[in-house]
Amino acid sequence: MSALFNFQSLLLVILLTICTCTYVRAVAPRLIDRNKEGFLGLFWMSARIGERLSPYVALACIAMAITILVQ
């Protein structure tokens, strides 16, 4: 089933995007910071969410991992 139609998969894709963009911005900030507008601006926004809400994103990743392991 596509990640767009399964809510749990959609949440997983969003969490992985946030975590990946935050990591890439920490390692190579120029890759993320040069595209702040348009479609690629979504990656910049994801990195900002990961930086500002990192404790909540970490808790969400742990919760998602537990739900996947329990299933």
From TrEMBL:
Keyword Transport: no
Subcellular location: Golgi apparatus membrane
Signal sequence interval, chain numbering: 1-26
Membrane topology: Single-pass type I membrane protein
Keyword presence, Oxidoreductase: no
Keywords tagged on the record: Golgi apparatus, Membrane, Signal, Transmembrane, Transmembrane helix
Primary site of residence: Golgi
Membrane-spanning intervals of the chain: 53-70
Role description: Involved in the early part of the secretory pathway.
PANTHER family per UniProt: PROTEIN KISH-A
Similarity annotation: Belongs to the KISH family.
Protein name, as recorded: Protein kish
